[in-house]
Amino acid sequence: MSTTILAIESSCDDTSAAIIQDSYLLSNIVAGQDVHFKYGGVVPELASRAHQQNIIPVVDLAIKKANITKNDIDAIAFTRGPGLLGSLLVGTSFAKGFALANKIPLIDVNHLQGHILAHFIKEKNIEKDLPNFPFLCLLVSGGHSQLMLVKNFFDMETIGETIDDAAGEAFDKCGKIIGLPYPAGPEVDKLAADGNPQAFVFSKPKVKGYDYSFSGLKTSFLYSVRDSVAKNPNFVKENTKDLCASLQYTIIEVLMNKVRKAIKETGIKEIAVAGGVSANSGLRSALIEEGKKSKIKVHIPPFKFTTDNAAMIGITGYYKYLNSEFADLSIVPKARMPL
Known about the structure:
single chain; 339 residues; alpha/beta; Nucleotidyltransferase, domain 5; five-stranded mixed β-sheet; 9 helices; 42% helix
């Protein structure tokens, strides 16, 4: 008998619903929020209001696209945290109501665990090489930069993390300095393709162990641009591609230095990358090259599973369902929720 999970993701500004059946993805619907672009970042209150408008149509479409009915759903999984509290409340409240009305189990999911387990999502007629435990996972996004030791579906150890800002935040804030639209990360990646990564040198903070730091890099970038603009008002316009290429190169080197260290010291032969920044072409290329050099297996997710989506919540909920890990209706969302 099959197991069908309805999943809800609402941690930030994307409202998403997915249907997972026996680890296979049947549907994954995502509704974005264009309202934040003009503010240069996500406005929490506007995000939560948009989630309220989007969640019912998104869930309805996910169920229809999966060609099932609500009576076929065995459990509902939802993102408990971390994320914006107002946004999380919308998803949590809907999940509770749906579970209560349909008399099915409720499953809470850690958003970060979802990003990592996205590598286990299967799709019909698509062959996929799944990671073998244990494996290393570089989890990089706008809010998180962590190096994880993944021992099994439920046992994940953080062996390194940022002590200040995240890699995605560095991309976005440095991009904003040179006038790129929010989110700046994808635009930096696009422009970097035609730039010289050695054109400019920015600070690479030195942090012990496997931890990261990006605040010094952002400051270095800011001061470099400010001083150059003071000498040449057209500096940014004339050097945008080189600035993007140099910024991307520096961020990737900071990330990869710790990855190389972990590969060497742990002896683990498989590494995965997850989170929004895993869509970056430079980071993907660096990991593939390192895989060839170190003779390890590298797992890179499809682009559709890099950003926030309910499919990753659904696959995590599926394994928690098999493990009988259910939540009580009294459960509340948490803005901060480490693995």
